[in-house]
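Page 42, continued from yesterday. The earlier attempt failed because a stray header line got pasted into the input along with the sequence. Redoing it now with the clean sequence only.
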Amino acid sequence: MAEEQETPSYERARDELAEVVRDLEKGGLTLEESLALWERGEKLAKVCEQWLEGARARLVAAQAVEEDGEEKAGKDGETPF
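This time it went through. Structure tokens are written below.
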């Protein structure tokens, strides 16, 4: 059960989510099996969304630093490096 507590990488969560979708689309599962897969898929989708939100935040932060550097260079004529 320790594996369930660990957050998988984005790629691992995405791949497992794709597998869950394939299994659900194939059909032939009991209602209980389908519900369990659906619940797992929901959890994996949330993990993927968290990774993507983190990546977006990092990009925004990097762009802000870049813009700050450009503003500083424009004010005093020197580059910050």
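Notes: Residues 31-76 form the longest helix (46 residues).
Reminder to self: strip header lines before submitting.
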